[in-house]
Amino acid sequence: MRNFVHAIPTKLYFGEGQIRRLDELLRPFGRRVLLAYGGGSIKRIGLYDTVKEILDKGGYTVTELSGIEPNPRIGSVRRGVELCRENKIDVILAVGGGSTIDCCKAIAAGVYYDGDLWEMVAGDHELLKALPLVDVLTLAATGSEYDAGGVISNLETKEKLGNVYTYPAASICDPTYTYSVSAYQTAAGTADIMSHVFEGYFSRTEDSSLSDYIAEGILKTAIKYLPVALSEPTSYEARANLMAIASVACSGIPAYGKQGTGWPCHSMEHELSAFYDITHGVGLAILTPRWMRFILKKDPSCAWRFVRFAKNVWGLSGDDETLATAGIDALENFFREAGIPMTLTELGIGEEHVAEMAAHANPDGYLKNAFVPLTTEDIEEIYRACL
Ligand code: NZQ
Ligand code: ZN
């Protein structure tokens, strides 16, 4: 087991009705609030009105930033920074999914950033000085409510880059806000949660038992509750369990004591989103089983982990050779049954950018520490297997 440091300063307020804490969470930071949200889902579910009422009652001065895109763009970051500077904002309140929260993290840091904001997004840095950020989560997926990361896109340069900015001071996670999330986004969000676990679970570190069992528990929870959330979207039990695992899955906890892998599926997916603006979790669901099959074939010495995955996560039994592939088959079927399109062709994606995407996904051999190290040619082959 490797050394690790764990420190997440974000306070999670989990459960129905936690929005009543909003005033007390914002108040210490000041009265000038940037209220940021996406394309309007928070208005349709009545959350916008609830938040506005709390802010009005509390005497806050509110500036709004609306229209933050899924796969948030650098343009929204720039708009947000300008609004914060012009209105001398004290605290940012992000209400929405991972895209809104990610964008707000970059805005919070961008306010203090001296230089071009795309340089900040693309730059090599640790946490940055930032405005305080509070969020109200409405989609269980990215874990952005409980990490410092943010992923920002630049459609002109076809880049989608993850970086660290700042942790939210507090996140309100009320599962009832996710009742309205579409079947497509619910399935995609769950695929994202599962992928965050896979990126650490499939590692060469064999003696980090705690993280392995945490990872398997998260995966089993996802497998149990995604079908329930799809057939019964207002099941509190299902939505609450999905929301809870989302925050833990991307927190680093399921990878305690493990060697970093470079997150191969995320590296490959971010290129797909950068080139084709697709839903992150859908790209991951398509890539993951193909990546698994590829590495199992490339280096059969990794089969032990796929056998464990089949047994402990899917509850399968049989001989090791059958089990190694049976777990992967089970995963692919699970995503298919959840209604996720399972080929890139279905998303209108062809071979045209495969070489370029593979080169970007593996700059300077970045994925050499992956569970099975990947070359640029390997990545091209994985993309082709997804077509
Ligand atoms: O924009 P609105 O109208 O709010 O609609 C959104 C959007 O269309 C909708 N939605 C959100 N909450 C809803 C809802 N619809 C109905 N009811 C609700 N309660 O869902 C759509 C997708 O929202 P988005 O925020 O884009 O989804 P998600 O939370 O999956 O975020 C995806 C982004 O996060 C990044 C991804 O790359 C992608 O850009 N990631 C961030 C990470 C992080 N910060 O740690 C890690 C992840 O691996 C990921 O890369
Ligand atoms: Zn992800």
Task: Report on this structure.
With 387 residues, this protein is α/β, with parallel strands linked by helices. Helix content is 48%, strand content 11%. The strands form two sheets. Strands 1-8-5-4-2-3 form a six-stranded parallel β-sheet, sandwiched between helices. A two-stranded antiparallel sheet has the order 6-7. The chain is globular, with a radius of gyration of 20 Å. The relative contact order is 0.11. Bound molecules: 5,6-dihydroxy-NADP and zinc ion. Zinc ion (ZN) is lined by residues 142, 192, 195-196, 266, 280.
- The number of helical elements comes to 15
Largest sheet: 6 strands, parallel
Rg over CA atoms: 20 Å
Distance between the termini: 38 Å
Indicate how many domains the architecture comprises: 2
Percent strand equals 5-15%
What is the 3D form? globular
Bound molecules: 5,6-dihydroxy-NADP, zinc ion
Q: Determine and state the CATH class of the largest domain.
A: Mainly Alpha
What order do the helices and strands follow? EHEHHEHEHHEEEEHHHHHHHHH
Overall number of strands = 8
